[in-house]
Amino acid sequence: SLNQALPEGEILMLPVMNGGIFAVCELARRIDRPMRFDYVHATRYRGETRGREVQWLHWPSLPAHPGPIVLIDDIFDEGHTLAAIRERLP
């Protein structure tokens, strides 16, 4: 189960906007643990078909989180955006 797969501690759910919000809502319903929510909004496409440098539209305002962080995105193209997000996480 998801509860057993996640490390102990309060979970920080971080959807990558916009599409990740739908998946995080579904996951949150299935996890019976304390959670906090924030979001990341990053883009590489800006209305184009080819990605460029990551542009940060929103970064979480929560202080450093000691527990598990669940990062959720709805599209995995080349992985550049998720890699950039992971680099910025503590």
Question: What's the layout of helices and strands?
Answer:
Blueprint lengths: L1 H4 L5 E5 L4 H11 L4 E3 L3 E3 L11 E4 L10 E4 L7 H9 L2
Parallel strand pairs: 1-2, 1-5
Antiparallel strand pairs: 3-4
Q: What does this 3D model show about the protein?
A:
- The protein has 90 residues and is an alpha/beta fold.
- It has a single domain (2-88), classed as Rossmann fold (3-Layer(aba) Sandwich).
- Helix content is 27%, strand content 21%.
- The protein has 3 helices and 5 strands; from the N terminus they run H-E-H-E-E-E-E-H.
- The chain has helices at 2-5, 20-30, 80-88, and strands spanning 11-15, 35-37, 41-43, 55-58, 69-72.
- The chain has a 3-stranded parallel beta sheet with strand order 2-1-5, covered by helices on one side. Strands 3-4 form a two-stranded antiparallel sheet.
- Strand 1, helix 2 and strand 2 form a beta-alpha-beta unit.
- It is globular and about 40 Å long.
- The two termini are 26 Å apart.
- The mean pLDDT is 86.
Offer a few descriptive terms.
Rossmann fold, single chain, two-stranded antiparallel sheet, 90 residues, 21% strand, alpha/beta, 27% helix
